[in-house]
Design brief:
It is a single chain. This protein is of the alpha+beta class and about 80 residues long. The chain has one domain (about 1-80): Beta-grasp domain (Ubiquitin-like (UB roll)), CATH 3.10.20.30. Helix content is about 15%, strand content about 25%. It is built from 2 helices and 5 strands, in the order βαβαβββ. The chain has helices at about 10-15, 35-40, and strands at about 1-5, 15-20, 55, 60, 75-80. A 5-stranded mixed beta sheet has the order 2-1-5-3-4, with no helix packed on it. A hairpin with a 2-residue loop joins strand 3 and strand 4.
Length: about 80
Amino acid sequence: MNVLIPDPLRPYTQRSRVEASGRHSPRCSSISIVGIRHSLRMIDEQDRVRRHVRHLRRGEQVFDLGKPLAPDDEVVIVQALSGG
């Protein structure tokens, strides 16, 4: 699974584009955003997706992070900026 990584999240991967298995565990047969996040270790200390992060698949935001993805899908992870 090809995954595009935004600048604020590159400390996790050291690269702007990575390949991720997208499987939550070796026994899991489906690829999902949750699996990608786990394989890239982009989760917080409580094993949850970090706040202000959005996921796009084929240009559309993914709300169900456990929904299976196709192996040829490209996922874009977007870090929303907040503050004032």
